[in-house]
Amino acid sequence: xxxxxxxxxxxxxxxxxxxxxxxxxxxxxxxxxxxxxxxxxxxxxxxxxxxxxxxxxxxxxxxxxxxxxxxxxxxxxxxxxxxxxxxxxxxxxxxxxxxxxxx
Length: 103
Fold this sequence. Notes:
- By secondary structure, this protein is mainly alpha-helical.
- The chain has one domain.
- The chain contains five helices and no strands.
- α2 packs across α3 and α3 crosses α4.
- The longest helix has 27 residues.
- The two termini are 24 Å apart.
């Protein structure tokens, strides 16, 4: 998710502007996020149900945390405001995901 921001920076910059000025584009982005959230939630719930992940966690809350942080970094990268390298951002998100969620 984060590494794609750099790869498609110019397209996403236009999309970012459109989200701010177009209700239909904002709704389209929210729909994308909702679908992505549902998929992440399902994956996490599968890991919890399979006893691969910590069972005391709520799959939707964890998915929202991961998606929100990823989206925040995505827009910082697109706007050229990221202070850390994409590699470092991705590595840290991965560590939080792997060691915070899984047993």
